[in-house]
Amino acid sequence: MARIIRRRAPIGFFIAFARNTKWLAIMERTPSGRTVLFYYGTDIDVQLGDRVIWKRFFRSNVEGTVVYIPGISPRHPDLECEGVRQWAVELDDGSIMLMLYWPEDKKGQPRSNIKFKSRGTRKSLPPETRLH
Question: Residue ranges of the domains in the chain?
Answer without folding.
Answer: 4-118
